[in-house]
Amino acid sequence: MNRTAKLVVSALAFAPLVSFAQDTATIRWGIDPTYPPFEAKQPDGSLAGFDIDLRDAICEQLRAKCVWVEQGFDGMIPALRARKFDVIMSAMTATDERLKQIDFSNKLYASPGALVAPAGSKLLPTAASLAGKRVGIDQGTTQEAYAKAEWATKGVTIVSYQNQDQVYQDLVNGRLDATFQDKTQAGYSFLKTPRGKGYAFAGPDVTDVRITGYGVAMGVRKGDADMKKRLNDAIAAIRANGTYQKIAAKYFDFDIYGAKQQLSAAP
């Protein structure tokens, strides 16, 4: 690392002492806590997950009081626009379609889409392979949009659910032939758990831009340039001072931020 780079990192690491010292307002964060390991509700009612820890670190940088507001994922954007909360922090991918309605921070992380089916099924995430099959998907996700565009018109029955837990429950109960969702979420919250026994990823990852978009980011209302800048500055700071990497290491054994399938951060 050259001297210039060191100075940049040093400046970012101490940015909260200067840039965010006066930021004490309450910020409301919209979340659907049904998507581990990113966000989930614990038996005692508390929230836990990668997004939860990231938000706490970001709020520390912002020196703001932060509160969670629970919201179903499919209603997340309308609720943000209606000012029910100020920021979406719920594993939402920044896509061109969503950018027509709201703005996004820079990238937090990204993960490809993946099909899950009974082990040995030989199914593939293609319309030809899934023709005549029932595929469960969490409604409002980029995976749902992709499946409806690419598969539903070609003989594949797409079944949408209010949350991911319901998707897995119907798969286990034999009501679905496969599920299609974020690969990281499927691996950690289903395949590595007892109820995921007998199931496996089916076929290759799906890295279509409609799924990966510009990576997962925080959503803000259109025109809220101040909030967007504050969030971007906080992301840069926690990546520069190592906080981001420490949090990521608690949940993942791979680079969730820099996976090669990711695109550049949203503008």
UniProtKB/TrEMBL annotation:
Q: Which UniProt keywords apply?
A: Periplasm, Signal, Transport
Q: Where's it found, cell-wise?
A: Periplasm
Main location, first listed in the record = periplasm
What Pfam families does the database record attribute to this sequence? Answer: SBP_bac_3
List the SMART domains hit by this protein, alphabetically. PBPb
Q: Which GO terms describe its cellular component?
A: outer membrane-bounded periplasmic space
Keyword Transport tagged: yes
The family database entries (CDD domains) matched by this protein are listed as: PBP2_HisJ_LAO
Question: What InterPro entries is this protein classified in?
Answer: Lys_Arg_Orn-bd, SBP_3_CS, Solute-binding_3/MltF_N
Q: Which domain of life is it from?
A: Bacteria
Q: Which residues form the Solute-binding protein family 3/N-terminal domain?
A: 26-255
Signal peptide residue numbers: 1-21
* Membrane-spanning residues: none
Instruction: List the PANTHER family.
Output: HISTIDINE-BINDING PERIPLASMIC PROTEIN, MEMBRANE-BOUND LYTIC MUREIN TRANSGLYCOSYLASE F
Q: Tell me which family the UniProt entry assigns to this protein.
A: Belongs to the bacterial solute-binding protein 3 family.
Q: Which NCBIfam families match?
A: 3A0103s03R (TIGR01096)
**What's the name of the protein?**
Extracellular solute-binding protein family 3
